[in-house]
Specification:
Layout: E1 4-7, E2 14-16, H1 17-33, H2 38-47, H3 55-63, H4 72-80, H5 84-91, H6 113-120, H7 124-133, H8 150-177, H9 188-199, H10 208-223, E3 230-234, H11 241-256, E4 261-265, H12 268-282, E5 287-290, H13 304-315, E6 320-324, H14 325-332, H15 337-340, E7 350-354, H16 364-377, E8 381-386, H17 393-399, E9 405-407, H18 411-414, E10 423-429, H19 432-440, E11 444-448, H20 452-459, E12 467-470, H21 476-492, E13 496-500, E14 514-518, H22 522-529, E15 544-549, H23 556-569, H24 578-592, H25 601-607, H26 616-622, E16 630-634, H27 639-649, H28 655-661, E17 665-669, H29 670-678, E18 682-683, E19 695-698, E20 704-705, E21 709-710
Parallel strand pairs: 3-8, 3-9, 4-6, 4-7, 5-6, 7-8, 10-15, 11-13, 11-14, 12-13, 14-15, 16-19
Antiparallel strand pairs: 1-2, 16-17, 18-19, 20-21
């Protein structure tokens, strides 16, 4: 009998199992070859759907019969051939990587891989007969390529899994829909030529500052021929870090025959401007911007380029990808096919982590371990890009012992006083009235505080004309409008006093002559300083960054970082000195101890959890770079917002709609959410069925102000984030 894997949507065409296995195996082998695992890739592709060679599955496919487990058979076959990690991938190629379990303890039928193998092992003869029937020739001996270290096995398995699920999706897509226009980008050699043409006018600098920038750029270009590995690029603010890192990456990728460049940015708030720089240099069709704020759903009549980019978000098959730390690291610890599918395209690539010091401390250890695995196992080069030199060397040595960390920027340049743009002063404790008074003495000034409540209080003490407030209590669409007005006033020399939370620190392109920063971690202080004299038009002596403390105790969230900053600056040490920054990170790590792996992810793979080895599914459920203890309030503050809410009310529930709604979203903590609900100010899932249990629509618009955002009454004491 002929066995079929897929039926076209109109029921007029059938793809045989043999055809699908062959197509998937070829793609999977090519993907896995990027890190030397082509034999395993071929095996997984060839056996992943062997379980469809049954009357039960054929009835499911052709007659809409009951669901059938078709993945366990291929997993049993892999285990029979001694490839347990291939078995893990095959078992999860639809439902997600299961927890491995325990070979000795798990009983037949348990949801772990071991439980499923126990249940299916008696079918091995039947499965082998199916292989013969469809002409599938199994390899006599597949080499054991898995690393010996348990943690490294976990990354290796996920990337193997990525190879399989992407190959499976692509072969199925080709049969179902034909060629959808994937690929078509320029090669990296062409992109390197474009960059070289772009920077050509810079090569005759007339000022000392530009000469230093050129030195950094040219050093990075020359370093492109260095071996694959782990690098840091420590460039002072204003040193041209973005273009220099791109230059290294392109030259390095071309020299080593690598596939792509992935640029990882800490926040969505700054990703647009970085992506725009890359597009302007390399061409729009070669740069994929992929994060939660990008709408990837396509309408009827979408242009071929729109289709190509939408498809590329599924697997990152583009020469340059710009994404967020959340997107990348949560994928590195995910178990679902949709999240993991892109991972194999990190292999044999240059992966740049911009603002590496912004990695969240509670997850620092697993993040560094994941970065290290790219260099250790997958032939990638990792670049940690920063202006503040985070002390990650010791962690990187632990997880990437074969790849010593190498700095790209010459020390003579890093230490140049030419890059110093500000002078720091300490003001001690300032009451809100005193702080507001000092701010009014400046025509243009930025004040950054640690809580949203404090930002509101201080702003209310300033004169209305020329004063602005920014925090995540305001919806993103309004924050963007305010930022545009701020930039216009700064450029025109008009009065502009801004009170903000830390959201303005990370890469937001504004330039103030004076900055006030509430005491915080030293990395935050230096980020704030980067908003002062950003363009270097004034001397450092007249560009003052004032560090102050408020009368209220700092929020609990900030206290460890503040303690480390105080210790680092003890004795009058300059916050802008690199040695001070190194002291800060050492102190911070000593104060946090084991807290740099909040969810004990590393331990989970090295030691297991309650007798379960390799808990892929359990870790995936636990590992969230952003804590999920907040609730979302959608604020229909304009006509577009009102229209989006109406679509919700009408029953629409799509990714595209929710991404658009994100521009009208405010995050709050549970007490605040409950208070709004008790006051009848919001509608929840009980009222609008397309909402989930952690979101609502604001009904009482009196509680939202264009200048202050959503009211924080009643005060929860927890609303601390940007």
């Amino acid at each position: 009998m002929e066995y079929y894997a897929h039926s076209s949507e109109d029921g007029t065409r059938l793809q045989t199992v043999a055809e699908h296995l062959k197509g998937t195996a070829e793609k999977c082998r090519a993907f896995a070859a990027e890190f030397g695992a082509e034999s395993i890739g071929s095996l997984m592709g060839n056996v992943h759907d062997v379980g469809k060679c049954t009357e039960e599955f054929q009835n499911r496919l052709l007659n809409d019969g009951p669901k059938v487990d078709h993945s366990t058979a291929g997993a049993v076959l892999c285990a029979y051939l001694g490839q347990l990690w291939a078995a893990e991938c095959v078992a999860g190629h639809h439902g997600g990587l299961p927890d491995f379990g325990n070979l000795r303890l798990d009983r037949p039928g348990e949801g772990t891989l071991c439980g499923r193998l126990q249940k299916g092992k008696d079918r091995i003869r039947e499965i082998l007969e199916c292989c013969v029937q469809i002409g599938l020739h199994l390899p006599a001996n597949v080499p054991d390529l898995a690393p010996k270290d348990k943690l490294q096995v976990s990354y290796w398995t996920r990337v193997l899994y990525s190879c399989l699920v992407d190959a499976d999706f692509l072969d199925t897509e080709l049969f179902m829909q034909g060629d959808r226009g994937r690929g078509g980008s320029d090669d990296l050699q062409t992109l390197l030529a474009r960059l070289e043409k772009y920077i050509e006018p810079w090569q005759n600098p007339q000022t000392k500052l530009n000469r230093l920038r050129c030195e950094i750029l040219n050093t990075c270009l020359a370093a492109g021929e260095k071996p694959r590995g782990v690098y840091t690029l420590t460039v002072p603010t204003g040193g041209g870090k973005t273009v220099a890192s791109l230059g290294f990456a392109l030259r390095h990728a071309v020299h080593h025959g690598m596939k792509r460049i992935v640029y990882v940015i800490p926040y969505t708030s700054i990703i647009d401007q970085n992506a725009a720089v890359f597009r302007s240099i390399l061409g729009d069709g070669n740069v994929l911007e992929h994060h939660s704020g990008v709408d990837i759903e396509l309408s009827d009549g979408a242009k071929p380029e729109e289709i190509r980019k939408a498809l590329a978000t599924e697997n990152w098959d583009m020469p340059v990808v710009v994404t967020t730390a959340v997107q990348l690291f949560e994928s590195m610890y995910a178990n679902r096919s949709s999240k993991c599918r892109k991972l194999h395209n990190l292999a044999n690539s240059v992966v740049i982590f911009d603002e590496a010091q912004m990695l969240p401390l509670p997850h620092l250890k697993p993040c560094v371990a994941a970065m290290a695995s790219l260099a250790e196992q997958f032939r990638s080069t990792v670049v940690l890009c920063t202006a503040t030199q985070p002390s990650l060397d010791d962690l990187m040595k632990d997880f990437a012992p074969k790849h010593p960390v190498t700095e790209l920027c010459p020390q003579t340049v890093r230490l140049q006083e030419s890059f110093r743009r500000v002078t720091f002063r300490k003001a001690g404790v300032l009451g809100d009235d005193m702080l507001a008074q000092e701010l009014q003495e400046h025509s243009q000034v930025l004040c950054i505080v640690n809580s949203r409540k404090a930002a509101q209080r201080i702003f209310e003490r300033l004169p209305q004309e020329g004063s602005f407030h920014l925090s995540t209590l305001m919806i993103p669409v309004q924050r963007q409008k305010i930022l545009e007005e701020i930039r216009e006033r700064l450029k025109a020399g008009l009065p502009c006093r801004v009170v903000s939370t830390s959201l303005i620190e990370a890469g937001v392109d504004v330039d103030f002559p004076a900055v006030y920063r509430e005491m915080a971690g030293l990395d935050s202080i230096l980020q704030a300083a980067g908003r002062c004299n950003r363009e270097g038009k004034r001397s450092a002596d007249e560009s003052i960054v004032t560090i102050f403390e408020r009368e209220e105790l700092p929020p609990m969230l900030f206290r460890t970082a503040i303690g480390a900053a105080r210790e680092a600056m003890d004795g009058g040490r300059d916050p802008g000195d690199m040695e001070t920054m190194a002291r800060y990170f050492r102190s911070l790590r000593s104060l946090t101890g084991d807290a740099i792996d909040k969810q004990r992810v590393i331990q989970a793979f090295e030691q297991g959890i309650e007798g379960c080895d390799f808990p892929f599914r359990t870790v995936a459920e636990r590992f969230k770079l952003i804590d999920q203890d907040t609730y979302t309030i959608y604020v229909p503050a304009d006509k577009n917002g009102e229209e989006l809410v109406r679509r919700l009310e009408d029953g629409e529930c799509s990714r595209g709609l929710y991404r658009q709604l994100g521009r009208y979203a405010v995050s709050v903590y549970e007490p605040h959410f409950k208070a709004l609900y008790a006051a009848g100010a919001i509608r929840t899932a009980k009222d609008i069925h397309t909402l989930d249990d952690r979101s609502a629509v604001l009904d009482n618009m009196k509680l939202y102000s264009e200048t202050l955002g959503l009211t924080l009454e009643p005060e929860t004491g927890q609303a601390l984030f940007q």
